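Predict the assembly for these two chains.
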Amino acid sequence: MSEIKTFTVSIYTENNIGLLNRISAIFQRRKINIESLNTSMSEIEGVSRFVIVINVTEEQIKKIIGQLEKQVEVIKAFYHTDEQTIFLETCLFKIKSDLLFEERQIQNIIKESNAQIVTVNKEFFVLEKAGRRSEIELLYRELSAFGIMQFVRSGRIAVTKDEMKISTMLAEFAE
Amino acid sequence: METQTIKLQATDSQATERITGKEAIIRCLLAEGVDTIYGYPGGAIMPVYDELYKYQDQINHILTRHEQGATHAAQGYARVSGRVGVAIATSGPGATNLITGIADAQIDSTPMVCITGQVASHLLGSDAFQETDIIGISTPVTKWNCQVTKASEIPEVIAKAFYIARSGRPGPVLIDITKDAQFEEFDFKYKKCTAIRSYKPVPQLNLDEVAAAAKIINAAKKPLIVWGQGVILGKAEEEFKNVVEKSGIPAAWTILGASAIPTDHPLNVGMVGMHGNYAPNMLTNECDVLIAIGMRFDDRVTGDLNTYAKQAQVIHFEIDPAEVNKNVTADVAVLGNSKESLAALLPLLEEKSHTEWHQRFKDMYTIEYDKIINDDIHPTKEGLTMGEVLEGINTVTKGEAVIVSDVGQHQMIACRYAKFNKSKSNITSGGLGTMGFALPAAIGAQMGAPDRPVVAIIGDGGYQMTIQELGTIFQTKVPVKIVVLNNDFLGMVRQWQQLFFDRRYASTEMVNPDFVAIAKGYFIDAQKVTKREELAGAIETMLASDGPYFLEVKVEKEDNVFPMIPSGASVSDIRLE
């Protein structure tokens, strides 16, 4: 029985309506929980990229990649371990403005965590932090002692350390 | 066909013409060579039906009595003809009723295009009358699907649909078209789809893999071939036969692979799987090389994967990369179309006979014959057996018939004992195991092969699931022969209850109606046989009749189908009693 690990799945697709449903169904019918999901444009015009994080065995991920690539509108799917990627998440904290001025400690936390203030008004200020999950969680714990009005975290985005040969592949597809 | 070719030339051009979406749909179908559609009208698809009225001299629309019947008929048509089956339905319940047939087509790799009407685009998402999210519902059971809300999208989407349905590993596609798109006018031109950037239907054949496979096969002492429907779908029957004959390797088939080579071919050693033959199942766990061709190691074939062919090197010829190493790890995988792969393999194979190894199959067949087959097809006990009915049909049809079977005991008996001389002769629901499949599928099969006798073998349970299609048979006069093997039980479930649930026959005994009266109510010639001496004559009468015919055979209530591999057991744990 192989070990369960965290894998980042990158799926290059045509930008078509309904594809998210088709892709999520592949995970759903195998009872695999999606830890994080992000979709966006990719480096190639007209091609979308899904970045999905799941915890499975290597044997499972290989089969999932096969099922993903089988979808008509999926151009190519890849999987990587954390070691093979540069990845981060981003988050927003909404915090009462009073705290920013009254709690000196908060200013220190913001400075030390490399978080950015996005906006400030009389009622609240918004803090943005991008980084590894552990960094975001640390910041959350530190700020929660003072009270967080709202918090939201994005899905993981990732690029590989090695070259992703998707453009070459697309050229081959075109032949 | 000539008319269609002319039409295709007329539409597959750069010239544009201003027409409505509904007319475009029909023009696209004609351009794809569609001559028969199975369907059922309703509010959201009415514009298309209105157009069909105009084109009825070019497209034959078959009004089934239920949308499920339309999909199964389209499947039967596709499986026998090798062409794309087409089914249409309205929105909401019409669309949802297609789902069983679509799921069946998906798992059995049947090329099918389904077109559903949808509420007008401004009503989408408003829970309008007969609105349902058929794209969402059908996503897990289609090879591809797409909703069209503008008439201008129709040609490209239909062209893609046919290309995707029929290419590579075939499958069902669903197109949902809103009612306003059907009425909208646009500048129509049609171009067949020949490529999609993200879709590579057939993997590039790697000759190194072929050579590696040949090397292992040539060195094998006890090789076994298991072939599936991939041989038929790849139109590789001739290449396959050449490989089998040159290599001299015993070849066994999965349920959907049946008929790719004739039943009586000396190297055909029978069916694998839960109710397959004794020798190929047992010897799967003894062979030194297992050559899987166009099959997907379904659990009904492999039984317990932990014990399946563990001693063997496995070579997998497969078109779908996702099937390789999915259930059974392959030592060598040859990706590609079976026709090309097997043609490339043939010259690399050494001529062999494997005489001693063949003798093992023959010895085991003798054991199976003495313990099971003889009693099944030449019974001496009083009650009629399903096996003797199949043997009676074989006698008259001489293996030339298309046998369409439903799901249950009779299906296993039909697949075990029917003789197949021609490819595409065994039409059954393999992967989904859909009761109710056979009656409508037989309608489509007969239309797909009008010159061949088509015999539907159905149990009393499955028959009643789509019995309303007798109306379609009556109206179209399609000369399908229907044989109901009636044991007044859901026989396969009862068999399992007997063997594994302490004979607790929970809800499996059926009180059945007068089937002959029902058939006659639809003006279909019919008779019922209860005695052995009546059987041969009844089968002859049925097959000699020009039109549709219904034959009910009362068979033993509690006969079981053996051999049997209990669910989850090893293939070598196969039971003969």
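The beta strands of chain A are 5-14, 34-41, 47-56, 74-81, 85-96, 116-120, 124-131, 150-153, 157-160. Chain A is about 35% helix and 40% strand.
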